[in-house]
Fold this protein.
Amino acid sequence: MIYHGENLDDYECGSPQYFLLNFTCSPPQDEWQFRIENESILAQDLFYMHREFDATSGGNDSRLKVAFKFVGLTPGTTLLKSTYSEIKEESSQEEMKWDHWLRVIVLGD
């Protein structure tokens, strides 16, 4: 399942099941960063990231499409936050301004 990052509210997935979050951004000046409140329910697949040029961006505006993979691990509910900003130390992530919030509900069998 693929969802586009536009301040999504809720998303339900099974366990184990994965989904992709897609975003569009300017060529890398910053990085997409994610925070999962309960990593026993949901995890990011750190080995998967897809990046391609957006052929629909016009003129001199070169944009990238990026996708990140997340996997539902066990039934429960957790919050997935994301932002496109400069890399910060782990300790200062609490102060970070998160742009996108997604409540992920992982369903059991």
Q: What stands out?
A: The mean pLDDT is 80. The radius of gyration is 15 Å. The chain has one domain: 2-107. Strands lie at 2-4, 10-14, 17-25, 31-36, 42-53, 64-72, 76-85, 100-107.
